[in-house]
Amino acid sequence: MSIITIILIIIFLLGIGGGAIAWFIFRQRQSAKSQKPTKKTTKRVPQPFRWSYIIAPAVILVLSIILTAYFANRLPNEVAYHFTADGSPDKWLSRGAAIAWAVAPQIFITLLAAAITWGTTRLGVLFGQAEGAWIKPERVLAFMGNMMALPQIILLFAMVNIFSYNSYQTQLMSLWVFALIIMISGGIIIGIFFIKAIRRAWAINQALAPPNNNFKE
Question: What is this structure's pTM?
Answer without folding.
Answer: 0.73
